[in-house]
Amino acid sequence: MDVRNEQYTHKVGVPPKQNLFKELKATVKETLFADDPLRPFKDQPRSKKFILGIQTIFPILEWGRSYSLRKFRGDVIAGLTIASLCIPQDIGYSKLANLDPQYGLYSSFVPPLIYAFMGSSRDIAIGPVAVVSLLLGTLLQNELDPKKDKEAYRRLAFTATFFAGITQATLGFFRLGFLIDFLSHAAVVGFMGGAAITIALQQLKGLLGIQNFTKKTDIVSVMHSVFGSVHHGWNWQTIVIGVSFLAFLLSAKYIGKKNRRFFWVPAIAPLISVILSTFFVYITHADRKGVQIVKHIEKGINPSSVKEIYFSGQYLLKGLRIGVVAGMIALTEAVAIGRTFASMKDYQIDGNKEMVALGTMNIVGSMTSCYVATGSFSRSAVNYMAGCQTAVSNIIMSFVVFLTLLFITPLFKYTPNAILAAIIISAVVGLIDFEAAILIWKIDKFDFIACMGAFFGVVFVSVEIGLLIAVSISFAKILLQVTRPRTAILGKLPGTTVYRNIQQYPGATKVPGVLVVRVDSAIYFSNSNYIKERILRWLADEEEQLKESYQSNFEFLIVEMSPVTDIDTSGIHALEELYKSLQKRGVQLILANPGPVVIGKLHASDFANTIGEDKIFLTVADAVASCSPKLAAAQV
Amino acid sequence: MDVRNEQYTHKVGVPPKQNLFKELKATVKETLFADDPLRPFKDQPRSKKFILGIQTIFPILEWGRSYSLRKFRGDVIAGLTIASLCIPQDIGYSKLANLDPQYGLYSSFVPPLIYAFMGSSRDIAIGPVAVVSLLLGTLLQNELDPKKDKEAYRRLAFTATFFAGITQATLGFFRLGFLIDFLSHAAVVGFMGGAAITIALQQLKGLLGIQNFTKKTDIVSVMHSVFGSVHHGWNWQTIVIGVSFLAFLLSAKYIGKKNRRFFWVPAIAPLISVILSTFFVYITHADRKGVQIVKHIEKGINPSSVKEIYFSGQYLLKGLRIGVVAGMIALTEAVAIGRTFASMKDYQIDGNKEMVALGTMNIVGSMTSCYVATGSFSRSAVNYMAGCQTAVSNIIMSFVVFLTLLFITPLFKYTPNAILAAIIISAVVGLIDFEAAILIWKIDKFDFIACMGAFFGVVFVSVEIGLLIAVSISFAKILLQVTRPRTAILGKLPGTTVYRNIQQYPGATKVPGVLVVRVDSAIYFSNSNYIKERILRWLADEEEQLKESYQSNFEFLIVEMSPVTDIDTSGIHALEELYKSLQKRGVQLILANPGPVVIGKLHASDFANTIGEDKIFLTVADAVASCSPKLAAAQV
User: A558 pairs with which residues across the strands?
Assistant: First the structure.
């Protein structure tokens, strides 16, 4: 009894009332400035604040001061490695976006440079990526034919890129970066896997040398195209070249995976394949036997495309819509990469600042003939393993691409398309993450449904539908959580004053005459009615059990409110209705441990008075103790 | 030390693994059958199940068996009262929907009859209501001109009614009724208030006798219309009649509110006004002096309108869209009324069954020349106060309307429109709920924003925009809750083993070297990253404080997980990242009291092994106790 009396000295605390402005400020701060970006600015003189501000926008000015030759060596090696990987990939990816090959290279020149000055990730490798290229290509060709309206198509691509950049920068500037968190990890895994399969299937065109190929991306149409042309569409020379180099690339990948010291093998294999196959085609004149080749890549660096962007007319809105979607997906990929590597090396990344950097880079890119660039999963991993130290590796890569554009592009003339297809396939297989899918299945079945929904949506219908399914299921999960929160019956763990869920702790014992229910969520309009009815159903269920064992009914219902972090008007109404219903049944409602916000609102709404201040306790144990003497008296 | 050792005997319980099918079944049951509608069917013979099934569809067969003369007397009085109230209201409301007056009466004949057989609320009064009439009228006239295309307009109205019924019945049948809970109480209060003001403003046309009146419903356009016609559009005879009867009606309302025994005064005042004013216009020939009158109401009961519903063509989709919106709003109103009175008289209402009843009644209604009917706030209150016992009061009302349609409609010829306007105004002022708005302001500022958003959206823009604002803000609130959950630093209440939020309990003391953080929400993809960063920020903040007071840093971080009801793959990843970050800082991560679902997933993902089983405790007190000896040793 000592302990209880001691505990009784503590009443449920009512936090001091904050004024409205403070409350609002706190909410806005927690929502938009959760990472406290202004912390370093605190208590600094104005000149220092200015320097800090500039450094915030251009982090290179901060880390650049401690840059060393040792770091530079790491960056050069990493930069050269990712350059050798990106050049053939860029040429292939631009095909996914239905653009000429040089636009892929352009996008690996300007955006990485801008990012190196503004971005805060040290490991990300910037450039065109497979999934965004495919998404952009699919969305653009819904509006315009990439062959018939070549110029308009390209202009729409720049317009979309411009608005993708605007979207990214805006989200970052207004600190709305948390919006991309609504695409769940599981949905992204499924989407990426589906996109990888779709992209790989698309490559069958190049790999098999098929001329007439469907424009649709779903597996049924593609397979129809592939097998429909089996007799008069496949080119055996192309197949030989493509399949043998694909085997080479996949073996290189396998070697790199088996032994991390050989990470450079898969990294340079694509460039070696390009060189070998180009030379082979050149000397054998295989192009005259139906082996399709790249033919022509424009020489020279990025021309200006400011005037190509549609700032008016019907394509403005279309470009905006496509840009928003492509920009969000590109963001999701870049931020995921940035976070992964930041947590591996334990440095902080400001997601919102990162978005401003990515946005700026795409806005500038759209004006210099680039299409949407972002962080590439595969190249970032290679960058990391090659020992990159800072974003300087992106500058090195950018410089190599610059030299390539100036001097080497004509050499790509005889590169067979089949090699590009093989390179893309070997790049995207890494996006299919079986292990993640298995882990998701183990941990959360609902997540697995989202993952599979996105996957099958992309594979069987289209990239947009897959994306839509992924987002819808993710949202549905959130809504389900707030609509149908868990509730649990608590029992006392023997020998303690601890009350726990009796399903989890079968040893916990119920107190006769007292039902303890815990509500595991904030009580809001979306669940208030459910919670009220669920509590009454617990009561009815338990009373039925009591009746079977000829015990007397409940006199007290204790609602453990520790997990109830907030309550709104509908929630208060539900509590009032619960109170009335219980009164009619002769059951006393008791609340245990309402949190600071909840107790404040219980007082504001006068409900605390309605049930009586003395019916609100600090702990379940206190609440039960308050019932017990009466019960004891009743049992005499 | 005794107590602690005793507590140590309890490990964190891992609930037995359920198989997938059971888990899915439980989720589906809790989501769709939360109210356990099949409970009475359990363990019954087949014949009994059949009877129960029939009674479930037609509750009248259940309560009808215990119907008595005493109940009938109550129902007759209530039925006559609401009939006298509904007849003038119906004629006015049909004008809001831009339909001829008889359609309002039709809708008070068939739907209440159907409802009486299928519905489970004993107090609701069925018929056309102001807000739904206005909403329907606004949406319909966006598509068709009610004067120029009178027939097509009426047919579209029936089509919309049909689909409103289909929507309602479908939601109920598939037990998706919880969807209407997403329109929060606060949003409904604001929406209703705004709609009431809009409706009242619309009545200025009739009340002032203005001929040319805007079709828009926003306050600016309406005021422009009113004051633009002040010199040559107002009719003083109309104003005298309208204003004096409005004063009469409002006084009657006031009397009824002051003394509940006189509830019948406001209930019969409208009919008295109609009779008096009609007689007055008839003898004074005021209609020749510009006082507008009803002129003509079709005599006879509802004609069939099956063939008028558009089952094909462009209006099918339009009718569907309008029907879905109107149906949902009608549902919201009816279910809110049903629940309110059910909780006042303490009986249960099955929301989903109720929706099937309302849906069926509107489907049948759409085929018998009725437009969307639902439960009326004002008439249900009168019904309740007049002592209704069962839905038989609706049958009585329906019978009176039937007689009216057959014999009395010609008498309404000389009823001035101004009286109808006055009746509508006096009816809708009750929808403006100042007290609720004040309570919402007191309890929850965010709710208040939703309330005001809906209100001003309706008043200044349009009904649809107000509705859209209300729904958007409601959703935003849910999303904000799951994106930015609360976290708190816990301290020990002196003399207990209870750990509580130090903001709420300023007396709670921190344990040196140990930081205890509570996470107040399930950890999902939408908040996992935030939670991880927020915990690290707590750590940084607290360490800064320690540094200022020259204390040593933290060695342990205890995450109190009692409120964490669930965790998904992203959440597990976030915990892993948190664990790694803490390791690099030399801080040990400890978990306290994970719930059944969470501990299961911690094991499934192997994270429990990663941090060590011995780092997961039943209570915060246990966790702290496990740190203390080491701390004590370190301090020697």
Answer: A516, A590
| pLDDT one-digit tens code per residue, B145-157 | 999 999 999 999 9
CB within 8 Å: B478 and A479? yes
Cβ neighbours for B119, distance < 8 A, ≥ 6 positions apart: B59, B126, B354, B357, B358, B361, B391
Residue-level length of chain A = 636
Among residues A125, A629, A57, A47, the alpha carbon closest in space to that of A396 is found at A125
| Count of CB atoms situated within 10 Å of the CB of B219 | 17
The closest of A418, A200, A98, A201 to A290, measured between CA atoms, is: A418
- Residues A469, A45: Cα–Cα separation, whole Å: 51
To the nearest whole Å, the CA of A508 is away from the closest chain B CA by 10
| Residue A305, CA distances (Å) to A110, A151, A440 in order | 13, 12, 44
Asked if B481's CB is within 8 angstroms of A479's CB, the reply is no
Q: Quote the pLDDT of residue B5.
A: 41
Task: Looking at the complex, report in whole angstroms how far the Cα of residue A199 sits from the nearest Cα belonging to chain B.
Answer: 26
CB B372 within 8 A of CB B136: yes
Distances (CA, A) of A43 to A36, A40, A138: 14, 8, 51
Cross-chain residue pair B31–A484, CB shorter than 8 Å: yes
Instruction: Calculate the CA dihedral of residues B219, B221, B222, B226 and round it to 10 degrees.
Output: 130
Instruction: Show the tokens assigned to A158.
Output: 């720049």
Backbone torsions φ then ψ of A486, nearest 5 degrees: -80, 150
Could you count the other beta carbons within 10 Å of the beta carbon of residue A224? 13
Report the SS3 class of residue A523. Answer: strand
Q: Write the residue in A14, A339, A481 that is nearest to B482 by C-beta.
A: A481
Phi-psi domain of A346 (left: phi exceeds 0; alpha: psi -120 through 50; beta: other):
left
What is the rounded CA–CA span in Å between residue B302 and residue B106? 6
Counting Cβ atoms within 10 Å, is residue B243 exposed (0-12), middle (13-18) or buried (19+)?
A: middle
CATH 3.30.750.24 residue ranges for chain B = 485-633
Query: Look-up: residue for tokens 């406001």?
Result: B266
Q: What ipTM is given for this predicted complex?
A: 0.83
Round to whole Å and give the CA distance between A367 and A306: 4
CATH number for region B485-633? 3.30.750.24
For residue A535, pLDDT over 90 is answered with yes
H, E, C per residue of B465-528: HHHHHHHHHHHHHHHHHHHCCCEEEEEECCCCCCEEECCCCCCCECCCCEEEEEECCCECCCCH
Query: Searching chain A, which residue's CA lies closest to the CA of residue B508?
Result: A10
| Angle, helices A69-96/A392-403, rounded to nearest 10 degrees | 50
Residue with tokens 């409900």: A607
- Tens of pLDDT, residues B454-480: 999 999 998 888 888 888 888 888 888
Predicted local confidence at residue A18, as pLDDT: 67
Contact A518, A619 (CB under 8 A): no
Q: Which of A7, A178, A439 sits opposite B496 (nearest CB)?
A: A7
Partner-chain residue, chosen from A439, A521, A581, that has the shortest CB–CB distance to B569: A439
